[in-house]
Design goal:
Elements lengths: L3 H8 L4 E2 L3 H6 L4 H10 L1 E2 L1 E2 L3 E2 L11 E5 L4 E10 L2 E9 L5 E7 L2 E2 L4 E4 L2 H18 L4 H19 L8 H12 L9 H11 L6 E4 L10 E7 L2 E7 L21 E8 L9 H17 L8 E3 L11 E8 L5 E4 L2 E12 H10 L2 H7 L13
Parallel strand pairs: 14-18
Antiparallel strand pairs: 1-2, 3-4, 5-6, 6-7, 7-8, 8-9, 8-10, 11-12, 12-13, 13-14, 15-16, 16-18, 17-18
Pfam families: SUFU, SUKH-4
InterPro entries: SUFU-like_domain (IPR020941), SUFU_N (IPR037181), SUKH-4 (IPR025851), Suppressor_of_fused (IPR007768)
Protein name: Suppressor of fused-like domain-containing protein
Length: 375
């Protein structure tokens, strides 16, 4: 059976989630499932088949009661299909069986499909399918066949019934055998991470999921400790995982940009200001709702003010990030655009003469404009 280190090797450190043991035991899981959830973990996203990024109803790790044809049962949601919000993967707590649930109006239909006899088998299958995509994605049918036959033989020893011809996994493996293994989707996530690591090589960023559905706003936010400031970054204007259509410009993954913001960081500050994170999240909702992407040279007023009530900042100017600039990603270029908080008087000046003079006055020692709500 797969180990935690093997999952991390395939999915990455941030791509594997483990549960707190006390919480797992309180939910009434079987002892073997507690061990797997707490010591081995679950992959966050596996190829295009599975992701824990679920934005309701029935979020990942939600426990709920449902009627089945045999008896009432308790389930825990594991995740959903990456491209289909109408299905959920769920484990029945009493048996440990893993089911595929179809949703109608947000409610599971009464006849779930059993896809694995145990949670351990389900995680093993996800692991091997992801590994298969990484090692054989795009290979010809002839090249992939020996590899696939070995994978299928290994998985039969783990859960033979799951590979019957009319089952979920059986159908997938048959499609791979006769059509080849599809190349894994490539998005901008790795390229963004590489750019940030090159800029701040010793950084240990903080990260938050927004729980906003794909296509309706940014999915994640990160905060990085730079010289005297927090560097805040959005994740989700661009096509992070290669699962969305390209944006309005040919070759641009998603909308082809991500936002940054720099705010002062005190010596003892452990977290960035909440208003700054909320501002970036709200900008994502605005862009996806109104259909107006940001670009270098843009500017806008905001409702109320940025930060506390004492703040004089009531507008934003946008400029290509002087440090991060534009990077290449599999789906096309991604531009980092810095959002800079300014006063309404400065907004009027920028409208009259352009953004450059205002932004130059706000540049810190590192040459990048800061958003300082105390000025």
């Amino acid at each position: 059976m797969v180990t935690h280190s093997e999952l991390v090797r395939v999915f990455g450190t941030d791509g594997v989630v483990t549960l707190d043991r006390d919480q797992a035991e309180q939910r009434g899981f079987r002892s073997e499932d507690v061990e797997l959830l707490c010591e081995v973990g679950l992959p966050v996203t596996a190829d295009i088949l599975f992701t824990m990024h679920v934005n309701g109803p029935l979020d990942a790790l939600t426990v709920f009661d449902a009627e089945t044809p045999e008896r009432p049962a308790r389930f825990m949601i594991l995740g959903k299909g990456c491209t289909d919000d109408r299905i959920r993967y769920a484990m029945e707590l009493e048996s440990g069986n893993v089911f595929l649930l179809a949703l109608e109006d947000g409610v599971p239909t009464p006849e779930p499909e059993t896809i694995n006899a145990s949670l351990g088998a389900f995680v093993e299958f996800l692991h091997r399918v992801e590994l298969c995509a990484q090692e054989m994605g795009g290979a010809s049918q002839e090249e992939a066949r020996p590899y696939l036959e070995k994978v299928i033989a290994d998985l039969r020893t783990c859960d033979e019934r799951a590979l019957a011809p009319d089952t979920f996994w059986g159908g997938l493996m048959d499609a791979y055998l006769h059509g080849g293994v599809p190349r894994p989707p490539q998005g901008s996530r790795a390229a963004i991470a590489t750019a940030l690591e090159a800029h701040l090589p010793d950084d240990e960023p903080l990260r938050w999921a927004t729980n906003i559905p794909m296509g309706e706003g940014v999915q994640e936010l990160s905060a990085h400790r730079a010289d005297g400031c927090w560097l805040l970054v959005t994740w989700g204007f661009s096509d992070l995982d290669g699962l969305r259509d390209v944006g309005p410009e040919p070759g641009a993954g998603g909308l082809g940009f991500e936002l940054t913001m720099r705010v002062p960081r005190g010596e003892g500050d452990e977290l960035p200001p909440g208003w700054a994170l909320a501002t970036l999240q709200n900008l994502g909702t605005y862009v996806f709702g109104e259909g107006h992407p940001f670009a270098d040279g843009h500017r806008m007023g905001v409702a109320g003010q940025l930060g506390p009530e004492t703040s004089r900042l009531g507008a934003l100017l946008f400029v290509t990030d002087p440090h991060l600039g534009v990077i290449d990603a599999p789906g096309g270029e991604v531009e980092f655009i810095t959002a800079v908080g300014v006063t309404r008087e400065e907004l009027a000046e920028a409208k009259a003469t352009g953004n450059d003079a205002v932004l130059a006055r706000l540049a810190g020692a590192n040459g990048v404009p800061l958003t300082d709500v105390t000025r």
